[in-house]
Amino acid sequence: MKHVLASLLVVGALVLPSPASAQRADRKDFQIAMDILSIVNNYDRYSIFDDISVNVKDGVVTMTGKVTFGIKAQEIAKLAKQVKGVVEVKNEVVSLPASRFDDNLRSGIADAIYSNPSFSEYQMLRNKPIHIIVENGTVTLTGIVHNDLDRRLAYSLAMGSNASHVVNKLKTDNEAQEELNR
């Protein structure tokens, strides 16, 4: 299984007068987004406990999401500025507060999900597709899974933790592909 999107959804929607020029602009923004996606996925400190989304419009990159250490977002934004065609990078990524409880929750949920035999295929991937964002005891699952059964199982495993609340934002392969095609 190859998840080109990992945990990022790339959106590049433009409204331009000429359909041909709009397609070229869309393609250019899409390529910029894919280049930045590659930077994020290959960044050595980006983990399953971080989540960065990228939106590109007219060469302006907006990065949103949450990371365990603010320096990650700063370094990725700096690298994104070097991508050909980038006009500006708006870094709206938030650093999660330091918390031993949240750290323990992250580890426990990651172990529960990635040690489950139903997720054995996901375990072997270099870039794990299910991300676990924990902020003040609230867990948000993001990323991409094969199907709704995997989405529900991941949610169920996260619910078995000491989390105060679990939000399931996992998308299936098909949902992610549909969103990408829009």
Low confidence ranges:
1-19
The CATH topology of the largest domain is given as Histidine-containing Protein, Chain: A
Radius of gyration: 17 Å
Overall geometry comes to: globular
Q: Strand content of the residues, in percent? A: 15-25%
Order of helices and strands: EHEEHEHHEEHEEH
The helix content is 40-55%
The total count of strands amounts to: 8
CATH class of the largest domain: Alpha Beta
Can you describe what's shown?
This protein is α/β, with parallel strands linked by helices and 182 residues long. The chain has two domains: 10-95, Histidine-containing Protein, Chain: A; 100-173, Histidine-containing Protein, Chain: A (2-Layer Sandwich), CATH 3.30.1340. Helix content is 41%, strand content 25%. The chain is built from six helices and eight strands. It has helices at residues 19-42, 70-80, 100-114, 120-123, 148-159, 173-181, and strands spanning 10-11, 51-57, 60-67, 88-95, 130-135, 138-145, 165-168, 171-172. The strands form two sheets. A four-stranded mixed beta sheet has the order 1-2-3-4, covered by helices on one side. Strands 5, 6, 7 and 8 form a four-stranded mixed beta sheet that branches. The radius of gyration is 17 Å and the shape is globular.
